[in-house]
Amino acid sequence: MIANKDINIDHLVKRFLDRFQEHDNLSQFPHINLNDIVAEKLHTINLSEHYGGRNFGLEETCNLLIDIASGCSSTGLVLAMHYYSLGGLNNILTESQKTEVFKDIQVNGEFIASISDPNILFARTKDDVKQVTDIKIDKTEGGYIVNGIKKSVSGSPRIKYLPIYGFQEGVRSRYGITALLTTVNEKGISIDNSWSYSGMKSTMSNNIYFKDVFIPESRIIGREGFGIEDTQELIYWFRLALTAVYQGIALCAYNYIRGLAKVKKEKLSNHQLAFFPGVQRNIADMKIKLETSYSQIMRCAQLVDQSIINGAFTDELYKLTLITKQYVSEAANQVVWLAMQVEGMQSLNQGKLLEKLFRDVRAATFHPPNEDLLKEVLAKKELGIISVKKRWL
Amino acid sequence: MNSIKGDSSTVQTIINTLQQVLMIEESIDQHQDLIGLGLDSMASVELVLELETAFDIAFQDDELLLENFSTVERIVSMVESKLN
What is the distance in angstroms between the Cα of B77 and the nearest Cα belonging to chain A? Predict the structure, then answer.
């Protein structure tokens, strides 16, 4: 348990751990876990008191997410998307939008999804942006018509609010991306229930389709055509909230194996595993990785919190979020791997905790930007290469 | 601005482009660090594209380093070498 402004969720973590096997085996969405979160009024924790929150910044939200994910990875991931959208949009939405949306979330226990990936890391022109953006937005009287697909929406059975980026033809801006806040109840929206992945099974991260969906102009996020420029905070919240989930998975593996090492005996000697040097070495390596990755998350989150207050984000901070995502993703995978080395073949037995964590933690490097893209972006920023033309010589 | 070497219309176009890309109205000195004024990776892409359009030139891949666009003086030098 990591301290969080007097909030102790040990009891929730235990409940989540008790339920993981059933949720995972049956590929069930963990509604019950989210109900617990709402019942304890944790679902608006990073909003102001006016919306039932406690003004959690990114640092405190990451601490909470680490705890939640140490009980259930899928619940952690769904909530990471929810919290990052709330946190990132808090300074962007208008007061009337916040009153409508945040109050609904507070009072009715609703959830908000992650904003769609604009996929523009290497887009050089508006034509490139148009080509790679999965959602298209057209202006119409009183609002916008939306068509396209929002892929892999974690928590799709439970979310109500669905922020999107879409390409809008004819607007005068660098990218031509407009951001809108839609809801899954709009006419023309459908969910395909196609999620069938072995990792993060219970997140039900289905694709959501938009066919001629009308969104009133009161639901625009920021300025028309400036969806990317006006929502910069979201990317920082996203990266850090995501890393917190994988840190939580690693913490879960560590807690499990530390306990197991004290009770499981090696057959030949009849001594507990804890007394064997190889096991001790693995425990030490796991602890070192956990602590260093935690420090990295906290340092980065503190800097982002400060930048939000100052209203300025630098290239250095952007790079730091990439570094944090990569470092924590690698460390978390290594921690689960080491835990499996200690438990042995049993850790691959379906239904065992480490077997599930092994599948879940592997997803870390695939979240955008995936590992290859992340390193390319980081290196080019470090070298000062302006990615205008070819990605490679 | 008068202290900047180069054709005055070229210099003015470059400064106008920089002000537009960096979304600033203040004057820009010849040696002023543009990165300090907000020329980050996103803005540098827009700057290169705008300069290519404004002067009908094309920068080579190996010229596309942030340091080559870090002051007005350097940009003027690069642009004029292509115009000449």
Answer: 18
pLDDT averaged per 10 residues in sequence order, chain A, 393 residues: 70 96 92 98 97 96 98 98 97 96 98 85 77 94 97 96 96 90 96 92 96 98 94 94 98 98 94 96 98 98 96 91 98 98 96 96 94 93 84 64
Residue type, A195: W
For residues A176 and A289, give the distance between their C-alpha atoms in angstroms, rounded to a whole number: 42
Question: Among the residues of B1-84, which ranges form H helices?
Answer: 8-22, 41-55, 72-83
Q: Is B23 on the interface with A (CB under 8 A)?
A: no
Query: How far is Cα A312 from Cα A302, in angstroms, rounded to an integer?
Result: 14
ipTM of the complex: 0.86
Q: Burial letters for A108-125: b for 16+ Cβ neighbours within 10 Å, e otherwise?
A: ebbbbbbbbbbbbeebbe
Q: Using DSSP, state whether B76 is helix, strand or coil.
A: helix
Residues in chain A whose Cβ is within 8 Å of chain B: 124-125, 174, 314-315, 380-381, 383-390, 393
A314–B40: do the CB atoms touch at under 8 Å?
Answer: yes
